[in-house]
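Quarterly update from the structural biology core.
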Amino acid sequence: MKSFSKISLFCFVILLSGGASALQKHAGRSLSAKDMNGFYLGGIFGSMSGDLKLSGDISGHGTTDRDSQYLGLRGSYFNFTSSDVGFIGRLDLAPKVAGSGWADYVFLRPQANIAFQIDRGFFFGGLNLNKFLSKFEDAGLGLGWQIGAGFNFSNDWLGEVQYISSTHSYTVDSIDVDVTFKSIDFSLEYRF
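Predicted structure, tokenized:
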């Protein structure tokens, strides 16, 4: 994720500057957990690296680690009870937009998370399934986990950062392939 550091820092600064202006507008007003309930739609930007391990008849094959960036859409559903504990379900759809290595890809990633709210901030963690819709179809369905944190800038806008991992195991031409994809992504979402 070498090239990711400058881009991620730039996105983080933009996210914070938007949050600062929203905080000034809504200063002193807290947000209850139920105020977050609803459907959100937004964009994600992230960087993904993959650790590839091969076993079996691997003559002429090697092990590699490659980076790429993706940009896509995120749909989320937030459901908090009267307490500050809730559920976040989401679906990500994103294609590769840049990076060295890995063929062009598009992935679909549903997530289920348990979330905890503290005033306008929230923390979450859960499980995900990762399915490549192009180039890595042989990889099948990957199972993984994620953790992250977010902040409600206003009643309708929120931003998040999360770390995501998923593992795919499959066989191609008598070669056993295990790939662990790791990514960090940023999102900005609007409630509708």
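The helical segments are 4-25.
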